[in-house]
Amino acid sequence: KNQVEQSPQSLIILEGKNCTLQCNYTVSPFSNLRWYKQDTGRGPVSLTIMTFSENTKSNGRYTATLDADTKQSSLHITASQLSDSASYICVVETTGANNLFFGTGTRLTVIP
Amino acid sequence: EAQVTQNPRYLITVTGKKLTVTCSQNMNHEYMSWYRQDPGLGLRQIYYSMNVEVTDKGDVPEGYKVSRKEKRNFPLILESPSPNQTSLYFCASGWASYEQYFGPGTRLTVT
Fold first, then answer.
1. Concatenated DSSP letters of A18-75
2. Which of A6, A24, A102, B53 is the most exposed place for a label (fewest CB within 10 A)?
3. Cβ distance of A102 and B43 shorter than 8 Å
4. Residues A30, A65, B31, B110: what is their CA dihedral angle, to the nearest 10 degrees?
């Protein structure tokens, strides 16, 4: 069964600290994996997109990694800021048309 | 400004009263999609469209209709809304399904 699981469900960290969010998937055949940031009450915004051949991709303080062999991805946030407080959603797409599998997200809260 | 717009942003309605949520994009994207988001369930795809006059069901299409008569517009129609369709709805567009830009969301309450 195609599934995307994210952990932890929620996380609270102090401003300035680093954190890592996890995404494990059983989706096959794999096409690409995306991380989105969703502020409360707003639409998700893309952070990174990775295909099979990419194992690291950065977007400012956000760095995503992908291990296609173990079907795991992580999103590392460096030097967290209060504005990083949001939900982070992992999405995996299979090959073919529009086969998207969404994780339920990790709710990150950064406190001063 | 490149954007996806949805209207209305908030809607409270009663069971059975037909409603339409509009979605429009100004980026000339071929791909458009509708999602609903519920606590603990994440985003679930309702319908998507690969191009004008081409639409297909997502994971949870029951109770919804869509149309794609023009490239920029992709309205979501609830012919007879029910309380279980109370949710936060997002429209998205992109050049392909992997590069989607999301709208601001429509919060629908059906009583």
1. -EEEEEEE--SSEEEEEEEEE-TTS--EEEEEEETT--EEEETTEEEEEETTTTEEEE
2. B53
3. yes
4. 100
CB B15, CB B85: distance < 8 Å: no
Tokens found for residue B25: 């994009």
> Rounded distance, CA B13 to CA A102, Å?
29
Interface of B with A (CB under 8 A): 4, 31, 33, 40-45, 48, 50, 56, 58, 88, 90, 92, 97-105, 107
pLDDT averaged per 10 residues in sequence order, chain A, 112 residues? 92 98 93 94 92 92 95 97 97 81 96 96
Rounded distance, CA B102 to CA B111, Å?
27
